[in-house]
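Honest question from a wet-lab person: if I give you the sequences of every part of a complex, can you actually get the arrangement of the whole thing, not just the pieces? Trying it with mine:
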Amino acid sequence: MASLQDRANLVPQSPLAAAWRVFWPLALALVVGVLMQHQVRTNIDAYSSKQILDVGIAIILAVSLTIVNGFTGQFSIGHAGFLAVGGYVAGSITYYGSFALFGSAGATLGTMSGLYGAKEGAAFVTGGEGLFLFALLAGGLVAALLGVVVGLPSLRLRGDYLAIVTLGFGEIVRVLIQQTPQVLMSKDAIAAAKPLAVPLSVGGSLGFGNVPKYTSLFWVYAAVVLTLIFAYRLKQSSTGRAMLSIREDEIAAEAMGVKTTYYKVWGFAIAAFFAGIAGGLYAHTIGISLSPVDAGFQKSFDIIIMVVLGGLGSISGAAIAAAIVTYLPELLRTPDTLMKFAVVGVPMLVIGGALLAMAGKPDQGPGKKRGHDPRAFPRAVIGLGVIITGLSILAFVAKRFGINLSDYRLILFALALIVMMITRPQGLLGVRELWDGALYRPLRDFFTARRHKGGTA
Amino acid sequence: MDTLLQTLKDALTIGSLYALIALGYTMVYGILKFINFAHSDIVVLGGWLSLVIATKLLAWLGVDLAAGGVAAWWVGPVVLTLAMACCGLIGFTIERLAYKPLRGAPRLNVLITAIGVSLLLQNSGQLQFIFGTSPRKIPSLISDATLFSIGDVQVRLLDLVVVGTALALMLALEYLVFHTKIGRAMRAVSYDVRTAGLMGIPVDRVISFTFILGSSLAAAGGFLWALNFSVIKQPADTSWVLLGLKAFVAAVVGGIGNVRGAMLGGLAIGLLEGFGSTYVNPALRDVYVFAALILVLLVKPGGILGKAVVEKV
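Yes, you can. This is the full assembly:
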C-alpha cells in the first residue's frame, strides 16, 4: 500500500499553488515584521518595545517546546540548553564574523535592525544583516543537531526518565559554556590565536555581552510568524499526526506502524531548531548579556510553564501563555496607573475572545462530550471577570496601604500558577487551537481554500 | 595519600547529605510518581529556619557567640528538632493545599504545581522581612576544633556530627520503612495505590506522613549543610538549586522510589563528584554528576537498585 506521502502526491497541485504556499508565509512574515518595526515601534517608548520584543522571543520558545512536549508528548525539561546553544553559536558567528568581514565587532544596522532603530540615513539592507541571518540559521541548525543527540535516548527511555536526561543535558551545556575562555578576543588576539580557538572564546561564566545588537521587532516578529505557520502546518501534516499519535498512546502508535523513535527524534530536532533561532535573537538583543545561566533549568521551567499554561499541544495557547507569562510580572511592577490596567485588559480580552470563539466548537478529545457546550461562554465571561476584578482589588489594596507590589510579583505569579493548575489543569485552551473556533473558520478557509476546490483524487 | 583521605572525607560528608536529601525525592516519587521540585526549597527552608531558631534561642539564653566560643551541647539537637518539626509541618501543609487537589491529575500538572510551590518558597524566602537576599553565618553550635588527625587530614567534631547525624537519620528511616506498621503501609501505597486503598490503608494519611517525613529529613539536610559550610547562602542561590538537583540525580542513580537506592546513590554521587574534582578537573564537577545520570539511565534505566518498569498494554 502506498504511504500517505505517495497518496498525497497523487493529488494534482499546480506549480502556482505550490509557489503561493511557500510565498505567502514569507510575505506575511515580512509584512508583519516591517509593520512592527516601522509602525508599532515608532509609536511606543523604549521600555515597551523591549517588552514586546521579549514577548516575541518567548512565543517562539513556547511554540518550539510545544512541538516536542505538546505534539510528541515527550517531556523535555532541558529546552533552555538549545536556546543557549543557538544563542552562543549565532553570537560567536556575528561577533567573530564581523571582525573577519568588517574589521570590528560593532553592528552595522540597516533600517530593519536594532531594537531602537538605525541611525538616520542608514542603508536599507547591510552586509551585517546578512551575516546575522546566516548566524541565526547556523545557530538553529547546530541546536537541531544537538536536538537529534538529545532525542536519541528516547530509543530506550520514556516519560520521566527521558525528562531527567534532558535536564542533565541542559545542565551539562551550562557547565561547558562556563568553561569557555572568559576573554573575548580583540582583533590582534584573533590574528595571533589558533583558528579553532577563536570562535570558542565566548566569555565563559562572565557572559557574552558584546554580541552586535541586530535584533529588532522586525526580526523577532518575522520569526514569530514563520514559527507559528510552521507549527500550524506541522500539526496538520502526516508527520504531525504521527507525532500526535505518539502523544496519545506510544504503544498503540507503534502497533499501528508509526516509527515512534523517528518521529520523536524529529520532534526534538525541529523544536531545538526554533529554540536555537530564539536563542540567536535573544543573544543579539540590546541589554542582554548571554550567560551560562540561560542554559540552566530555571530558564527551561519558564518555557515549560508557558506551554502547560497555554494547554499542552495547543500552538495558539502556548503563544498566548508566553505573552502573559512574560508580561504579567512586568505589569505587577507598575500596577498603579489605570492605563497599564487597560493594557492587561487586552490580553485578557484575547483569551476571552478565544474562549468565546471556541464555544461553538465541539471538543474533539477522546471520551469527551460532543456538541455545543452552553456553559462555555458564561464560564469564560465569569472567569475573565474574576481575574480582572482580582487584579484591580489587588492594585487598589496595594495603593491604599502603600505596598510595593513589585516586591511580591514573583510570589503572586507562583501562586497564580498553583491556583491555575488546580482549577484549570488543562491550561487556557486545552488541546484546542484558536483557529478551531467558529469565528475563525472563514479566515482559515480563505488560506486553505485550495483543499476544497481542486482535489478530485 | 593525604589528598586521597581528604577527598574521601569531603566526598563522604557531601555524599551523606545528598543521600539524606535524596530520600525525600525518592519517597515522594515512589508514592505519587512525580518529581517534587519543591523539595530542594524545603532544604533551604530547613537551613534558614535553623539559623533563625539558633540565633533567637541564643539571644533568649543571653549567650553571645560573636567573639567566638561554642553554644552549649544541647542547643544543636534542639535547633535540629525544631527545624525538622517546622519543615515537617510546612511539607504537610504544602501537600494538603497544593498536591492533594491534584490527585489523579496528569503528572505534568503536578510537576508544574511543584515548580510553582518551589518558586513561591524561593521568592517568599527572599523577602526582606523573611530571610533576605544576603548570605549569613550560622552561630557555631558545634566545636570545629580538630579532634584527631590521620596523616595531614584533620577530623573535626563537626565532621563527625554531620556524617553521624546523617547516617543515624538514614538508619532510623530504614527501620521505619522496613520494620514498622506505617512503613509497611508506605511500601504498600508505593507498590499499588489503588489496591492499598482497597486493603484498608488510609492512603491520604500515608501520603501526608511521607511528606512530613521527607520534609523533616530535608530540614535536617539543610541544617547539616549550614553547619558544614557555616555560611548560608540566600534562598534563591544557584548553589541550592544545584544541591537539590544533585540529590535528585542521586535518587535517580540509586533507583528512584527505592529508599536504600537513594542512600547508595547519594554516597556514589558524592564520591564521584569529590574524586572527579580532585583528580580530574574541579571546574567540571557538575558535568560528572549529570553525565553519570545520563549514563546510568541509558545503561540501566531503573537505576542501580531499581527495577525497570515494564509497560503493559
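Two things worth pointing out. Chain A has a mean pLDDT of 80. The CA atoms of residues 43 and 49 of chain A lie 9 Å apart.
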